[in-house]
């Protein structure tokens, strides 16, 4: 496998790339990935990748534009180095929240990024939890869309009692949470956000009184949606509130906001690198996606079924 196979790691999430490479028993391709004095991306691949099946790993996380351009230049470098196939592995797909026109004259940035990756020369995409499932259809190349919730499922099964309640923090997460609640044999509740004249009012539709609430979402960024959901659950009489989120972007003052809430614990994956402060002030646990990514990469390389990994 190693003779015709290679992993190229961008700078966005080097620890995850190292873990994936370790599971695959390969060393990442030696490459210079840095910046010129004026800030332009500089990439030079330092070993032969001609004819190889190359997996370029990069999360499109903060600094988003830096990491996106770096990924595009990585793809172009591999193409010009005569790699036989270039698969971009994107643990976190930035710009995914704009997946439709919500207002007139607004962009669909999820589609823009999909087009950029294709034009740059990507042959295939492997990604975790697009913000909306329809983003998969924005690509003209094959996509393996993986579920980070599946990665978190073992931890959920081991720590959450069946009498607990799964809560969808917004309408967009209802289908995800409904499927999860069905698998776990738990009840489902849904957050209802309504904008009044002066403020946004949030309340929970469902019975959470005296019960353990588990909020499940694909993303925690500013933390405001999660914070509102925690507070609404406590107002409704929840005994305890925990949260499971795939992508822990935690931008701005998110860590302090959540630290000041009634949230008891937060379990996330390592699709995005997390600052030390989050571990210091939150009851935070990470579950690595590396084993799953390594299995999927191996299946893609060997032309085996990926869906067979997730019966």
Describe this structure in words.
By secondary structure, this protein is an alpha/beta fold. It folds into 2 domains: 145 residues, Rossmann fold (3-Layer(aba) Sandwich), CATH 3.40.50.2020; 139 residues, Rossmann fold (3-Layer(aba) Sandwich), CATH 3.40.50.2020. Helices cover 32% and strands 26% of the residues. It contains 9 helices and 14 strands. The strands form 3 sheets. The protein has a 7-stranded mixed sheet with strand order 10-9-8-11-12-13-14. A 5-stranded parallel sheet has the order 1-4-5-6-7, with helices on both faces. Strand 9 and strand 10 form a beta hairpin. Helix 1 crosses helix 9 and helix 2 runs parallel beside helix 3. It is globular, with a radius of gyration of 20 Å. The mean pLDDT is 93.
Write a short abstract of this structure.
This protein is α/β, with parallel strands linked by helices and 311 residues long. The protein has helices spanning 14-24, 64-80, 109-120, 148-159, 174-184, 224-235, 254-259, 276-281, 290-301; strands spanning 5-9, 31-35, 41-45, 53-57, 85-90, 124-128, 143-146, 165-168, 187-195, 200-205, 212-220, 240-248, 265-269, 284-287.
Number of DSSP helices? Answer: 9
DSSP E strands, number:
14
**In the CATH scheme, what's the topology name of the largest domain?**
Rossmann fold
Overall shape: globular
Strand order of the largest sheet: 10-9-8-11-12-13-14
Q: Give the distance, in angstroms, between the N- and C-terminal Cα atoms.
A: 25 Å
Residues in β-strands, percent: 25-35%
Structural class: alpha/beta
Residue windows where pLDDT falls under 50 for at least 5 positions? none
The number of distinct structural domains comes to 2
Roughly how many Å is the radius of gyration? 20 Å
- Main sheet properties: 7 strands, mixed
CATH class of the largest domain: Alpha Beta
**What is the string of SSEs from the N terminus onward?**
EHEEEHEHEEHEHEEEHEHEHEH
| Arithmetic mean pLDDT | 93
């Amino acid at each position: 496998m190693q003779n015709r196979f290679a992993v190229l790691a961008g700078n966005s999430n080097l620890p995850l790339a190292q873990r994936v490479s370790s599971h695959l028993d390969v060393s990442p391709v030696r490459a210079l990935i840095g910046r010129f004095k004026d800030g332009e991306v500089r990439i030079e691949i330092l070993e032969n990748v001609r004819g190889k099946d190359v997996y370029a790993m990069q999360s499109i996380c903060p600094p988003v534009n830096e990491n996106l351009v770096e990924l595009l230049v990585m793809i172009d470098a591999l193409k010009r180095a005569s790699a036989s196939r270039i698969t971009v592995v994107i643990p976190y797909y930035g710009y995914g929240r704009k997946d439709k026109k919500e207002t007139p004259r607004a962009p669909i940035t999820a589609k823009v990024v999909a087009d950029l990756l294709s034009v740059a020369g990507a042959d295939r995409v492997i990604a975790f939890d697009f913000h909306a499932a329809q983003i998969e259809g924005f690509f003209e190349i094959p996509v393996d869309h993986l579920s980070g919730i599946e990665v978190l499922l073992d931890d959920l099964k081991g720590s959450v009692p069946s009498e607990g309640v799964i809560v969808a923090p917004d309408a967009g997460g209802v289908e995800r949470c409904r499927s999860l609640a069905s698998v776990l044999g738990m009840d489902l509740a849904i957050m209802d956000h309504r904008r009044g004249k002066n403020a946004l009012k949030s309340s929970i539709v469902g019975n959470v009184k005296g019960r353990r609430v588990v909020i499940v979402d694909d993303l925690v960024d500013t933390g405001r949606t999660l914070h509102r959901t925690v507070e609404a659950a406590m107002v409704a009489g929840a005994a305890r509130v925990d949260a499971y989120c795939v992508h822990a972007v935690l931008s701005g003052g998110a860590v302090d906001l959540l630290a000041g809430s009634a949230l008891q614990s937060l379990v996330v994956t390592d699709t995005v690198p997390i600052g030390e402060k989050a571990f210091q002030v939150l009851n935070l646990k990470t579950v690595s996606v590396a084993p799953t990514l390594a299995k999927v990469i191996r299946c893609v390389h060997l032309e085996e079924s990926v869906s067979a990994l997730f019966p």
